[in-house]
């Protein structure tokens, strides 16, 4: 079964969570029940937790206490475009998401966002392609909508543009690094 744990920052509790380790990747997870950090501190702790879960596992973080995340998800924004989704993505546990907006059995606790760790580099690339397409489609719909309450999604729209630029930049850098002699461990053919 799962075990409770608590992380402290100095003498103050920073996080309360559950951890489960199992024989198969999906049986390895961490659930953040309460987090008393934000910004870079929260992202650093999420990165630490994501690294504690083996590839194929997942990290879940409650968003009941995060009004902006809850509102954006309710309005249909892809999870990676919420403040919480962005933190999970940068921490390495955002290669696919599940929104637990409704507790299926009633005992799962508050609403939470579940972010997956990729099994390997190929899985990460496939997930990134799928997420990029989802973000592009959502952004096109959001920009075309005649919605009087666009302010509820304005931050997600800006995150979409920034995220798409970040992904494009990373792809260009990956192509360049594959093309350089040091990336292949030798000289370019014909050089």
Strands, total number: 6
Strand line-up in the sheet with most strands: 1-2-3-4-6-5
H/E topology pattern: EEEHEHHEEHHH
Spatial gap, N to C terminus: 58 Å
In round numbers, the mean pLDDT is: 87
Helix-strand category = alpha+beta
Beta fraction: 15-25%
Radius of gyration: 19 Å
Provide a count of the helices. 6
Question: Biggest β-sheet: count, sense, barrel?
Answer: 6 strands, mixed
- What shape does the CA trace take? globular
Helix proportion range: 40-55%
Show unreliable segments: 186-191
Task: List key phrases describing it.
191 residues, alpha+beta, 6 helices, 6 strands, globular
Task: Describe what this molecule looks like in 3D.
The protein is α+β, with helices and mostly antiparallel strands and 191 residues long. It is built from six helices and six strands; from the N terminus they run βββαβααββααα. Strands 1-2-3-4-6-5 form a six-stranded mixed sheet, covered by helices on one side. A hairpin with an 8-residue loop joins β2 and β3. α1 crosses α3 and α4 runs antiparallel to α5.
């Amino acid at each position: 079964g799962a075990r409770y744990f608590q992380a402290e920052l100095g003498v103050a509790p920073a996080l309360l969570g559950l951890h489960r380790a199992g024989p198969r990747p999906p049986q390895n997870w961490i659930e953040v029940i309460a987090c008393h950090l934000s910004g870079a501190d929260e992202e650093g702790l999420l990165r630490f937790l994501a690294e504690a879960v083996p590839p194929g596992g997942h990290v879940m973080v409650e968003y009941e206490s995060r009004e902006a995340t809850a509102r954006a998800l309710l309005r249909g924004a892809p999870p990676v475009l919420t403040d919480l989704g962005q933190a999970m993505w940068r921490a390495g546990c955002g290669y696919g998401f599940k929104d637990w907006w409704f507790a299926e059995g009633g005992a799962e606790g508050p609403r939470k966002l579940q972010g997956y760790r990729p099994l390997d580099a190929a899985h990460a690339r496939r997930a990134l392609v799928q997420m990029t397409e989802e973000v592009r489609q959502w952004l096109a719909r959001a920009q075309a909508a005649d919605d009087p309450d666009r302010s509820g999604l304005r931050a997600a729209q800006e995150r979409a543009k920034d995220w798409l630029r970040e992904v494009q930049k990373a792809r260009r850098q990956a192509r360049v690094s594959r093309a350089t002699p040091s990336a292949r461990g030798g000289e370019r053919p014909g050089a």
